[in-house]
Amino acid sequence: MSAPNTSAFCLRLLRRQLVLAVRRPIEIGNPLLFFAMVVALFPLGLGPAPDKLANFAPGILWIIALLSNLLTSDAVFRSDFEDGSLEHLLLSPQPLYLSVLSYIAAHWLITGLLLALVSPMFALMLNLPSQGIIALAVSLLLGTAILSLIGGIGAALTVGLKRGGMLISLLILPLYMPVLIFGSAAVQAAVGGNPAGPYLAILGAMLSLAIALAPFAVAAGLRISVDA
Amino acid sequence: MRILAGLSRYGFEGKVERNAPLLYLGHQPGVKALLTPRENLAWHVAGEASYSDEEIEMALASVGLYGYEDVPSHALSAGQHRRVNLARMYLSQSALWLLDEPFTAIDKTGVSELEALLEGHVERGGAVILSSHQTLAVRREVIALSLIKGMLL
């Protein structure tokens, strides 16, 4: 028997979350299915003219990514709160900041990362010009990580409420806005033949800030939720 | 119990000071239905120390879950979930045990085994604070507090 080190603990937490997700594949599939369904709705609502769709595609894709993240954020801590696992975590001698970061990393791996990887396919469905596709995938890769971190704050604060779904939207949608602005701007820039780099750099800066600060807010939120 | 553990301050204005490392077993067993007892227990104790597979198996065998280590927990009963949780006591190095109704959903033999375990812990110099609906059959002196009458028994 030896004292556990923190990185091993965090890896273990990450692995636990991924094992749980893999054993309930529907939770991985749902956001992707949601994405596909909503993408398919837009040509029906806006009309199937390819050039019109191409115009709106960056904004549409980003908004759907945002909503699909919002749908899954609610569940990050819920089952662990309900079955008491969260109490164990709060009492564990490991730093809560890093545990929280592992939770969110797991959430991002099974939602944001997959979404960013399959996004080129959805981009083609909306006729997004090919020069915008890489910018879309990279901006989603960075952006969904920020969304997961912000969503974690909302999830931590509302986890104790029976119907937190609506409240979490009100809490975190305003915080999602800057991500949406710079994310879709990056894609639009790339589509227009301009460098997307500056926008992606801003997303990167926002991600660094979120990694540094959001886990503190999440940890505080969890303590409040468990206390109540 | 939650206040003593430092999880809650609900309606409490005093201060809890505690120097010893703590083992807290709450009302909810914290057992994930999708994980096996082995995975659940390994995760529960992961924050405190690294245990080998054999140590985890031994602890599960001690609470009567021998042969159930790798069965998905959703196939187990409420009492077995509780016992996965109680297995932590066999591994714990903490001096202070805070147990919130540990005998819930545990049969008579299980209860007397637990009582023996608690006695052993106290004999080794540990302390146990527990809440229970039944009287404790131990040879040691127990300080009992009735939460209904609000006085020492």
What does this structure look like?
The complex is a heterodimer of chains A (228) and B (153). Helix content of chain A is 83%, strand content 0%. Chain A is built from ten helices and no strands. Chain A is elongated. By secondary structure, chain B is of the alpha/beta class. Chain B has a single domain, classed as P-loop containing nucleotide triphosphate hydrolases (Rossmann fold, 3-Layer(aba) Sandwich). Chain B is built from six helices and five strands, in the order αβααααβαβββ. In chain B, the strands form two sheets. Chain B has a three-stranded parallel β-sheet, with helices on one face. In chain B, helix 2 (37-46) packs across helix 3 (53-62). Chain B is globular and about 45 Å long. Chain B starts with a helix and ends with a strand. The model of chain B has no long low-confidence stretch (mean pLDDT 80).
Summary?
The complex is a heterodimer of chains A (228) and B (153). Helix content of chain A is 83%, strand content 0%. With 228 residues, chain A is mainly alpha-helical.
Shape of chain B: globular
CATH A-level architecture of chain B: 3-Layer(aba) Sandwich
Nearest-integer average pLDDT of chain B: 80
Separation, N- and C-terminal Cα atoms of chain A: 36 Å
State the low-pLDDT regions of chain A, or none. none
Q: What strand line-up does the widest sheet of chain B have?
A: 1-2-3
Strand content of chain A: under 5%
Most strands sheet of chain A? none
- CA radius of gyration of chain A: 18 Å
Count of domain modules of chain A: 1
Task: Give the SSE layout.
The complex is a heterodimer of chains A (228) and B (153).
Chain A: H1 6-23, H2 25-46, H3 50-73, H4 78-82, H5 85-91, H6 96-110, H7 112-125, H8 133-158, H9 165-191, H10 197-227
Helix pairs in contact in A: 1-6, 2-3, 2-7, 3-7, 3-8, 3-9, 6-8, 6-10, 7-8, 8-9, 8-10, 9-10
Chain B: H1 2-5, E1 22-25, H2 37-46, H3 53-62, H4 78-86, H5 88-91, E2 96-100, H6 108-123, E3 127-131, E4 145-146, E5 151-152
Parallel strand pairs in B: 1-2, 2-3
Antiparallel strand pairs in B: 4-5
Helix pairs in contact in B: 2-3
